[in-house]
Amino acid sequence: MVRAGYADEPPAHEVARVALARSLFLQREIRRAARSRSNEAAVSLSRSALESCFLGLYCLFDPDAEEQVDRAVARSLKVVLAAPVAPFMSHEELGAALREQFGSDRPLDVWSMIDKTVKAGGPEQLVPLYRTFYDPTSNLYVHASPLGLHRHRRRLADHPRVRPRPLIGTRTAVHIGDVSVGLLAGEIARAGGRDAGEFESYFDVHRDRMWSALPRFILMMPIRLGVLSPLRGAVAAQRDAARRGDDWVPLEEADALIDQVAGRLPGNIAIERVVEHAKRSVRRARQE
């Protein structure tokens, strides 16, 4: 993999360049998925692009990256070879052979790589990128988590949706891929003593476009997942009772019911304004 002019480059830096090549390929695939209006593919590919960016930056900044890359190779070989060598070697024997050659088969997880990169002087933007896009995308798109499966539920029907609700915009996925390329390419240029000004400008433009979609993502996620349906049901019941006039519920009890329903909703959802709107709706109904 070593090309002319890079013979004296540390092996970990070479891995960073290969990670950039991977990010560039994924950037093209994200755009292809966006043109075909495939939100699921675009968002999943953008997560992979971020992961390549994280690995490349870790290899640039952490002095122990070369050892960790060897551990990752051992882990991958253990997974890939487990079935083919099963008739000749047990899973434990395969793990022991790989540990003898590579030292360990337990590489760092993604968050540990980010934490080490930032502490070693890497870009601090990695933390919000991980927490705001990489981790939610893992749970909502890639893994079969309960919340991810909730995207297939219908609000007013018993049968599930074949096409899940899109929670992250396709254009946002495109900008995530661009941010991954710009961030990693700029750091590789700086590590090689080259000018990174154009890469920084490229990163800044697409970072701003990516973050501009964040408020809508935060607001639409609880709505599209249907987690506010119980709250809407409680408000509708109170409004119906207020309109009938013969089944009044004291306002204090109505407010307590709304707070109780809101308290059962998933955490980390900014619903304070929604709750206040629900309480005002009950009061307006009683004035009609």
What does this structure look like?
Helix 11 runs parallel beside helix 13 (272-287). It is built from 13 helices and no strands. It has helices spanning 11-35, 39-61, 65-81, 91-102, 110-119, 126-142, 146-149, 170-191, 197-212, 214-224, 229-244, 251-263, 272-287. 70% of the residues lie in helices and 0% in strands. It is an all-alpha fold and 288 residues long. The protein starts with 10 loop residues before the first helix and ends with a helix.
List the main descriptive attributes of the protein structure presented here.
288 residues; mainly alpha
Q: What gyration radius follows from the Cα positions, in whole Å?
A: 25 Å
Mean pLDDT: 76
Counted by DSSP, the helix tally is: 13
> What percent of the residues sit in helical stretches (DSSP H or I)?
over 70%
Overall 3D form: globular
* Oligomeric state of this protein: single chain
State the end-to-end CA separation: 75 Å
